[in-house]
Amino acid sequence: MSNRNATKTATKDAKSLPVRHPESGRRYSLEELEALAAEGDPWALGKMDDWDLSFSNEYKGSLTDRCPDPECDQYGEPVTLCYGEDGELLDVDHGGWGHPPAAEVQAKAS
Q: H/E/C letters for each residue in 46-103?
C-alpha cells in the first residue's frame, strides 16, 4: 500500500477548506482576533500574543495601595485605587475584580 494516494487525498481536502485568517489590507478588531484565536487560527494566536506583549502592561494595576473598605472581605490587602479627574475615588481594584468605595471611604478621600 502506498502513502502517495493518502497524501494526495489529504492535500485535496485541505484545499477545499475556507481560509479563516487575514484578508490582505483588512484591519481586524480585537474581538475578531479573539474569535479566530479561539478557533485555533495560528495567525490570530500570534497577533493576540503580540497584543498582549504590547498593551497588557497599560491595563495592569500597581497593587501598591491597601483596600480601605472595612466592609470588604479583603480589607487591608494590596489594591490599586482608581481616581477620577477631580480626585474622586471611583473604584478599588483588587487585580482580578474590584468594587466601588464605601460611602465613608469616599468621604475621607475627598
A: HHHHHHHHHHHHHHCCCCCEECCCCCCCCCCCEEEEEECCCCCEEEEECCCCEECCCH
Same domain for 52 and 86, yes or no, is no
CA-closest candidate to residue 33, choices 42, 24, 19: 42
pLDDT at 55 over 80: no
Of the candidates 62, 72, 61, 63, the one whose C-alpha atom is nearest the C-alpha of residue 104 is 72
pTM above 0.70, yes or no: no
91 and 74 both lie in a single domain:
yes
In sequence order, the 6+-apart residues with CB closer than 8 A to the CB of 106 are: 88, 89
- Cβ burial of 72 (10 Å; 0-12, 13-18, 19+) is middle
**Residues of the domain holding 87:** 65-109
